[in-house]
Design goal:
globular; alpha+beta
Length: 157
């Protein structure tokens, strides 16, 4: 696995993360309004959430924004890795940081939503890393899956 520098909850990284998110997802105008607003991401960080950014040679190559959900649940709300760096362990490195943060902060569950059709690599990751599917629904004729994973906590309860 290659080495990446990770940064956690650095608000000044938000602008670069949003730029990278637009490159990764190529969102529609509706998706831009719903998922790519800096103030919205900042609120997630400030209320028990987490921003993880991955850097290589001074360039952001990945991001994850998580938010606090129901009691003791950290939800992976949006994540992306720049196309040239996919398949090189960037997501796995960022996920390890998420799990460590969640455990130390007293969360006992991590959740995320994904789609087998749109995000086959994420779907495979959750299936292979201890997540359990707890719900599915159809949106725009595509299936969306809801996944959760219990983790051990080391933080203050």
């Amino acid at each position: 696995m290659q080495h990446y520098d990770l940064r956690l909850n650095i608000e000044s990284d938000l602008s670069d993360a949003l730029i990278l998110a637009k490159e990764v997802f190529e969102p529609s105008e509706k998706e831009l309004a719903e998922y790519h607003q800096e103030a919205h991401w900042r609120e997630k960080m400030r209320h028990g959430g987490l921003l993880v950014t991955a850097w290589k040679n001074g360039t952001m190559i990945g991001f994850v924004i998580c938010d606090h959900r129901e009691e003791r649940t950290l939800h992976v709300w949006n994540a992306g890795v720049h196309h040239p760096h996919r398949g090189r362990g960037v997501w796995s490195t960022m996920y390890a940081a998420i799990e460590n943060f969640a455990s130390r902060a007293g969360y006992d569950r991590i959740t995320l939503n994904t789609s087998r059709e749109r995000f086959p690599n994420m779907y495979a990751f959750v299936k292979n890393h201890g997540f359990q599917e707890y719900r599915t629904e159809t949106q725009n004729e595509k299936e969306k899956s809801y996944w959760g994973k219990m983790i051990s906590t080391t933080g203050m309860q």
